[in-house]
Structures are given as C-alpha cells and as structure tokens.
C-alpha cells in the first residue's frame, strides 16, 4: 500500500496557507448536527476539544484521570518554543524549522515541521490572551531562554511549571465549553476500542473506571490525543497511568504505527536509586542554561565519590571533565537530548559515573559557576562594584531561586541534597516518544475519520525531539491544525445524521473488550501485573534502550514474545469487572505494551543505521556519533497490524523528501 501524506504543492512557506484556503468548510448552522469524540485531555486533546466546541460541534471528551487538569502535559517544566525573535538574536520561522529538522536527524517531514514553526508564534499570543503567566523581564516583556539544539533564545516559560500553566489555559477554554453544553466531559473513562463502520471511524468503546460499566459512544470523527508510550520501559518520567492503549487499539483496527523505535532518552533526570522504584523524575532541560555537566577526570576520584569518601565540592576545577563543553564547544551543555544522553552513558560506561547505585550511573549538573556569574551581575546592578564572595554567593543563589526555585525544591525533597550547595546528580531516562500513529498532513490516519494529535502521532520530530517542542506541537495540533482539517473531513458528513450505537459493529467491539476483561479476571495466575511490566521494562531498557545492536534486538524480539505468552498464562488480576479495579486497568495496558515492545524491537532491528534517539552500536563514526544511511533509510517506517502474532506486521515506507533543507551530517561541535 502506498502511503499518501497529502502534502500540498507549492513553496514550503505557502503550503499551509494555500492548503487552508482550499479546505472544505462546515457552515455554523450544520455544526451542531455533528459529533466528535476526543480521547485525551492534555494540551493536544484539551485544545482540540475546546476549539471544536467553540466552533459549534458536539464534542465528547474522555480522560482516564479524575480531571482533565491531571493529564500528563501538566508535568512539563521547561518551556514552549516559538519563533518570535523577541531577543533579536536572529531567530525566524525558517530557523525554528531548520533546527527541528536537524534536531530530528533529518527523519521528519519538511511540510509538517514548517507548519509547526509557522503557527508557533500564534500559540504564544493565544496563551497570553488566556492569561498564562509566562515569565517576563524587568520591563514587563515576555522573557525567553535557550534549550538544547539551538543557538537562539526562543523558549517561553513559566518558572519550572510551563506545562501546568499552559494546561490550565487550555482547561479554562475547555471548561467554558463544558459550561455551555458544547463539550460533554467523561472523566475516569478509558477508551478500550475503536469502532469502524463501513471503514470509517464512528465511535469508541470506553470503560467507566469507577463502576466498570462498558459504554458505547458514537461520533462522525474520532480524535486520539492520548500521549506517548514511554511507560513500555516501566521506569520513565511519564505519569504512572500514561499508556499506549488508545493509540494501539487504533493500530489494531488498521491505522499504521510509525517509527516505534524512535524514543527520547532525556539527559537530565534524577538517577535510579533502587530496584523497587516505580517512577523517575525529570529535572528540566532549562537547567542546562545555567548548570554545567561534568564527571571527575580521574577514575579514582569517581570511585572515591561513589564510596562516600569524597564530595564533589572537593574536586578541583582542573580535575573536572566538562565533557559536553569539551566535545561540543559550539553548543556546549545545550546540545540536543540524544547527544547529551549518549555522552553521559559513554562517560559512565568508561567508569567515571558518580552515583552509588547498582550501575554506578550518574553525572553532575553544577550551578556554582552560574551563582558566581549572576551574583556579580546582580551586585553590579545594585551599584556594588566590589562585592565580597559572600555577597556574590547570596545574590547568585537568589537569582537561581527566581529562575528555577520550584525545580531546586523538588530535587531537594527527593534526594535530601541542597543543589545550591552541591551539584545535582543526573542521568538519562526515558521521557518522550517520537514514534506514534502514522498520520498524513491533515493529521488523519489511514482510517477515514480517525485523527491523531500531539505525542500520540509520529508527525513532527523525526528521530529526536528538541526540548520545549512537545508543548508547541500539542497546542499547534489542537488550536491551529485540527479545527481546519477535521472540518474538511466533516463537510461530507452533514447529511449522515446521528450514528446509532445499536449497529452490529458496536456490539462486536464491545464483545471484544468484555472478552479480554473476562479472560484476565478468570486467569487464576500467580504473578502481579507489575511483575511482568518490570520484566518487560528491563528487556526494553537493556536491549531497545539508549544503545542497541543486532544481537540484542533479536534477543529482545524473542524474549518479549515469550514474556507475553507467560503474561497471558500467569498474570493474576484480583477483583471484579464491575468496580474500581486498578489492577485490571494495568493488565489491559500492559497487554498492549507487550505487543508494542515487540514491534519497537522489530522496527529498531530493520533500521540498520543510527539516527537521533535510535543508536545502533554497529553504525557510529570514529567519534561515537550517529551514522545515518540516507540512501536506504530516509523513510518513515509505518507498520500494519496483521493479527495477534506481532512478528507478522508488515512494514510500509513513506519516503522523505528534502527540498528546502540540505540534508547533512549533524554537527554540534
């Protein structure tokens, strides 16, 4: 099957505008006749539901949390990118477009990325109008900071809680539509299947997580905005409930799943501290603006630190290896995430790790230089041109507290160490997934009427996402893309009338869901869901993680298939179907993770190159950098479901064309 990305003709800077000008419309008087389902209420889902409700459609929004505000978008810390050039440092729509394509290691669609860069500026205006309290400079203008993979300051932020503030803005817009009756909100509901009628997406089967009731919901179009699948690794920075189920059910109904092996490992997370840990904590990338990453130059110093005989503050400046500044002088500590993560792994694998955990994995993020630098600036601004060291330190810490206070507090609460006094310990962890459901330029899957937005789709980030671009994509899709493209699809639905939930397709889908639930509850196994999830996570991290190789990937495919079989034979799910049953919820989600994990390993195995977050050890240059194969792998790998044996999935290729950016080896040196 040939994948049609529906990229419009014409110059790239005009594609989106021309495309919008020729899309079909639904008249305001016809919109109340049309129903739309939105699954997920993070930034993409909440903004889409609010926008479509505002336009006059009947919207049903679903989230498994107790409130839309608890979607995982709330956890984003550092900021949101936009090409406003407020800092007058040479930023532009083109530069944001270029940085995103390069950051993704030339594995993203040009047209989608340019559209993202175009609408980025509108997002900031929209959010300011909603009252999002972005940080401002001394004169009251919006402030910016830098993020990885860029040489400009284009990231707008609200302290270390940007995602929360943006989500509250989208939630306020959504709440207004709920109050007006245009959006019907279903909290504590989880989508468990997609219903297709005559090949079109026509509704979902959802489970009420409080009562256990299985419900049928119909619509003329279904939008999936359910986030990423990082929890396939068990340990990740994602919320514990984050899962792939909605996206995977769409895949099993025929939507292609694209580039599943593209996973982002975030370089600045609090290191793993024990085998019973169930979650990892992110320390915002914004901290790399002010912190310098280092390990000791001498192995004996690293060993002494791990043994508790030496403190980092006792290591002299000349005995510290600021390895990112050494290897990548042009970008320093602000290289892209995949580059920073691999560099940390390389140092720890070589024996220079500083954390006393099972793997000795950890590096330092040190703010002492910034305290001195900003302390001197602050003293000078106060008229004190000859400050004492103590005055410099006090003022420098005050500056840091204003910028990053909540992040430093969070770190101290978790580790019981004061990052103002001693360097933070960090290490890479699974954070974001660039892969997802395949969509065309209109964000529609190959199932007519089924759209996918935000992290759940594959569309904008190639093989590696730049920091502060997830929030940008979620809001771009929900506020500025879907309202146009979904309306274009729905223009042909105004005479369809209400979709009945009594159709046999709804009964079939409901029976599929009930069968799976009953199977788990009557399984009489001996081991918990978490037992299997942890086992899956270990296979994924060790063999489909930061570094991969052919042998490990082949082993992973076989091991996951065997684990999946054991899971279905021996998992124990207590309780019943007609009650609040968190173990049942987890079992249904982990069943999907098992299948996805196998596909991720297969995808990584077929992609015989290194690009972005996908690092094959066999394909690296003399300096340990990614070695792409543009001749053979410059494509989007979209997988088609072929039944319960995941090894039978069929790979379809969408060739990537670069007409406006010269494809080249990434260089951050």
Assign the CATH class of the domain at 266-428.
Answer: Alpha Beta
Radius of gyration: 25 Å
Shape field: globular
Proportion of residues in helical segments: 25-40%
CATH superfamily of the domain at 266-428, please? Succinate dehydrogenase/fumarate reductase flavoprotein, catalytic domain
- The number of helices is 17
Main β sheet profile: 5 strands, parallel
CATH-level-2 architecture of the domain at 266-428: Alpha-Beta Complex
Average pLDDT: 97
* Proportion of residues in β-strands: 5-15%
Class computed from helices, strands and strand pairing: alpha+beta
Give the CA-CA distance, first to last residue: 41 Å
Short overview:
Its main location: membrane. By secondary structure, this protein is an alpha+beta fold. It has 17 helices and 19 strands.
SSE diagram, text form:
Blueprint: H1 12-21, E1 35-39, H2 43-55, E2 58-62, E3 80-81, H3 93-103, H4 110-130, E4 155-156, H5 162-179, E5 183-186, E6 189-197, E7 200-208, E8 214-218, E9 221-224, H6 245-252, E10 257-258, E11 263-269, E12 292-296, H7 299-306, E13 320-321, H8 323-327, H9 337-352, E14 363-366, H10 368-381, H11 389-415, E15 424-433, E16 436-437, E17 450-452, H12 470-490, H13 504-521, H14 529-543, H15 550-570, H16 582-606, H17 630-633, E18 635-640, E19 650-655
Parallel strand pairs: 1-2, 1-9, 2-5, 9-17
Antiparallel strand pairs: 3-4, 6-7, 7-8, 10-16, 10-18, 11-15, 12-13, 12-14, 14-15, 18-19
Helix pairs in contact: 1-4, 2-5, 2-12, 3-4, 4-12, 10-11, 14-15, 14-16, 15-16
Cofactor: FAD
Active site: 337 (proton acceptor)
Main location: membrane
């Amino acid at each position: 099957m040939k994948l049609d990305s529906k990229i419009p003709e014409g110059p790239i800077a005009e594609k989106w505008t021309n495309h919008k000008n020729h899309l079909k419309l639904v008249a305001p008087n016809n919109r109340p006749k049309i129903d739309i389902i939105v699954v997920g209420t993070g930034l993409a889902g909440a903004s889409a539901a609010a926008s479509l409700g505002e336009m006059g459609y009947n919207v049903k929004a679903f989230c498994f949390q107790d409130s839309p505000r608890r979607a995982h978008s709330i956890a984003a810390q550092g900021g949101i990118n936009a090409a406003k050039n407020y800092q007058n440092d040479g930023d532009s729509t083109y530069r944001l477009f270029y940085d995103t394509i390069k950051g993704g290691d030339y594995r993203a669609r040009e047209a989608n990325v340019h559209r993202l860069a175009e609408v980025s500026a509108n997002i900031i205006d929209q959010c300011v109008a909603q009252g999002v309290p972005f940080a401002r400079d001394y004169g009251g203008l919006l402030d910016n900071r830098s993020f990885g993979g860029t040489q400009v300051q284009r990231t707008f932020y609200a302290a270390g809680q940007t995602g929360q503030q943006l989500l509250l803005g989208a939630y306020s817009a959504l709440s207004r539509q709920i109050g007006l009756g245009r959006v019907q909100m279903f909290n504590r509901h989880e989508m468990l299947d997609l219903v297709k009628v005559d090949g079109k997406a026509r509704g979902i089967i959802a489970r009420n997580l409080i009562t256990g009731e299985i419900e049928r919901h119909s619509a003329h179009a279904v939008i999936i905005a359910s986030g990423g699948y990082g929890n396939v690794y068990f340990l990740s920075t994602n919320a514990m409930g984050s899962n792939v189920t909605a996206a995977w059910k769409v895949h099993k109904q025929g939507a292609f799943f694209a580039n599943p092996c593209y996973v982002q490992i975030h370089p600045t997370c609090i290191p793993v501290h024990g085998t019973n840990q169930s979650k990892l904590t992110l320390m915002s990338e914004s901290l790399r603006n002010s912190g310098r990453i280092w390990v000791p130059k001498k192995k004996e110093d690293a060993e002494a630190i791990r043994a508790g005989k030496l403190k980092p503050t006792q290591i002299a400046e000349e005995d510290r290896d600021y390895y990112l500044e050494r290897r990548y002088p042009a970008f320093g500590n602000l290289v892209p995430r995949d580059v920073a993560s691999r560099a940390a792994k390389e140092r720890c694998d070589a024996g220079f790790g500083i954390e006393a955990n099972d793997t000795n994995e950890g590096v330092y993020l040190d703010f002492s230089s910034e305290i001195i630098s900003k302390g001197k600036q602050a003293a000078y601004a106060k008229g004190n041109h000859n400050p004492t060291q103590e005055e410099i330190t006090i003022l420098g810490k005050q500056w840091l507290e204003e910028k990053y206070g909540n992040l430093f507090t969070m770190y101290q609460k978790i580790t019981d160490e004061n990052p103002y006094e001693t360097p933070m310990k960090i290490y890479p962890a699974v954070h974001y997934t660039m892969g997802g459901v395949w969509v065309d330029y209109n964000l529609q899957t190959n199932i007519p009427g089924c759209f996918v937005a935000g992290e759940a789709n594959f569309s904008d980030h190639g093989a590696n996402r730049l920091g502060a671009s997830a929030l940008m994509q979620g809001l771009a899709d929900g506020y500025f893309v879907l309202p146009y493209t979904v309306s274009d699809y729905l223009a042909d639905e105004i005479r369809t009338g209400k979709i009945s939930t009594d159709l046999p397709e709804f009964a079939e889908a409901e029976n599929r869901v009930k069968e799976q639930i009953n199977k788990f509850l009557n399984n009489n196994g001996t081991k918990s869901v978490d037992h299997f999830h942890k086992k899956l996570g270990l296979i994924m991290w060790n063999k489909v993680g930061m570094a991969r190789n052919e042998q490990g990937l082949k082993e992973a495919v076989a091991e996951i298939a065997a684990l999946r079989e054991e899971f279905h034979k021996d998992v124990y799910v207590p309780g019943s179907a007609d009650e609040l049953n968190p173990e049942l919820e987890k079992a249904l989600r982990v069943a999907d993770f098992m299948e996805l994990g196998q596909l991720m390993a297969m995808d990584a195995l077929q992609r015989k190159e290194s690009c972005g977050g996908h690092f094959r050890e066999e394909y690296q240059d003399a300096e340990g950098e990614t070695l792409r194969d543009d001749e053979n792998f410059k494509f989007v790998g979209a997988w088609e479901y072929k039944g319960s044996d995941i090894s039978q999935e069929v790979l379809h290729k969408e060739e990537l064309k670069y007409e406006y950016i010269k494809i080249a080896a990434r260089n951050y040196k």
